């Protein structure tokens, strides 16, 4: 199966029926529930990577997509997918499913990080209030 068949509406696997596409980084970004999980640019596929699947990319020697803007380079958390995975429908389905699951994990990490930030702000406020009481 070719890469394009995963992203053509009538040929998608069932779990990809509700994806959306829009131009992104000179290619096309693919979104599930408003979050981008894949980028196709210059005939290359990049998938969202995170703590649960980044090892898959690194063990196969894949690199992150690096976006260039105004002479600056910005590495992303989207990694290229090996050709042997793209050519194998079963493996590609697994890798895409992992990238989509990563979206949910990233959302939970953001919530935990936000909660931690708010606790740190409260602690800092309390510390400054306590330390200010000792100044005359």
Overall pLDDT metric? 78
Main sheet characteristics: 6 strands, antiparallel
How are helices and strands ordered from N to C? HEEEEHEEHH
Helix content: 40-55%
User: Which residue ranges are poorly predicted, with pLDDT under 50 across at least 5 consecutive positions?
Assistant: none
Q: Whole-number radius of gyration?
A: 20 Å
Physical arrangement of strands within the biggest beta sheet: 1-2-3-4-6-5
Q: What percent strand? A: 25-35%
Tell me the structural class. Answer: alpha+beta
User: What is the strand tally?
Assistant: 6
Calculate the terminal CA-CA distance, rounded to whole Å.
76 Å
**What's the helix count?**
4
Q: Quick one: overall form?
A: globular
| Oligomer class | single chain
Word description of this protein:
With 136 residues, the protein is an alpha+beta fold. The chain has 4 helices and 6 strands. The protein has helices at residues 3-7, 54-59, 83-86, 89-133; strands at 20-24, 27-32, 35-41, 44-48, 64-69, 72-80. It has a 6-stranded antiparallel beta sheet with strand order 1-2-3-4-6-5. A hairpin with a 2-residue loop joins strand 3 and strand 4. The model has no long low-confidence stretch (mean pLDDT 78).
Itemize the secondary structure elements and their pairings.
Elements: H1 3-7, E1 20-24, E2 27-32, E3 35-41, E4 44-48, H2 54-59, E5 64-69, E6 72-80, H3 83-86, H4 89-133
Antiparallel strand pairs: 1-2, 2-3, 3-4, 4-6, 5-6
Keywords:
28% strand; 6 strands; alpha+beta; 6-stranded antiparallel β-sheet; 136 residues
Short summary:
The chain is built from four helices and six strands. It has 136 residues and is of the alpha+beta class.
